[in-house]
Amino acid sequence: MITTDRLLLRPHTIEDMDAHYALSAEPEVYRFLAGRPSTQEETWLRLLRFVGHWSSFDYGLFAVVDRSTGKLIGDTGLAHFCRELGPDFDPYPETAWIFSASVHGKGMAFEAASAAHDWFETKTGKREAVAIINPDNAASLRLAGKLGYEAFGSATYKEHDVTTLRRTP
C-alpha cells in the first residue's frame, strides 16, 4: 500500500467490483476509452486482470481511494497488457490511469500516478515505460507530460487511434 497526503493506493480486490463498475459508467471516464460504458462482464474481466497482475508480477494497477471519504476514485499503476503494438511498445511496462470525474482538475491523478511510478521504480529499478492515450484526451496527455512521457508515434488499438508515449531513463 502507498499513502499520500490525500490518497491510499492499494491492490484491487474482488470487492472493488461495484465501485469499478460505477466508475466505468461515468461518461467522462469511458469517453476516451471504449466510447461507451463497460458491461459488467468487461468490468469483471478487467478487475480479474488487475488482481492477476499482482499475483503474477507482484505489481500492477492500484485502486486509488480518497482517504477523506474512503471512496474508490480511480486506478493507476504499471502493468503488462500485451497489446501487440510492436517491439517499440510491447516489451515495456505500460502505465495506465482512470479517475472519476468528481476528482478531475484536483491534482489527484498526478498525486496517485507519481506515487505509483516512484513505487514501481524503487521496486523494479525500471524507469522506462510506455503508454497509449487517445489523441483527443488533452488532460491525460498533460498528465503524461508531467510524469515525463513523450509522444513517439501513433497506432490503432481496438479500432481507436492512440498516441504512443515513452518515459525514458
TrEMBL record:
Membrane-spanning segments: none
Any single Pfam family the record assigns to this protein: Acetyltransf_3
Q: Name one GO molecular function term.
A: acyltransferase activity, transferring groups other than amino-acyl groups
| Domain annotation N-acetyltransferase: ranges | 7-169
Extract the PANTHER family matched here: GNAT FAMILY, PUTATIVE (AFU_ORTHOLOGUE AFUA_3G00765)-RELATED-RELATED, N-ACETYLTRANSFERASE DOMAIN-CONTAINING PROTEIN
Could you tell me what this protein is called?
Answer: N-acetyltransferase
Per the UniProt record, the source organism is Tianweitania populi
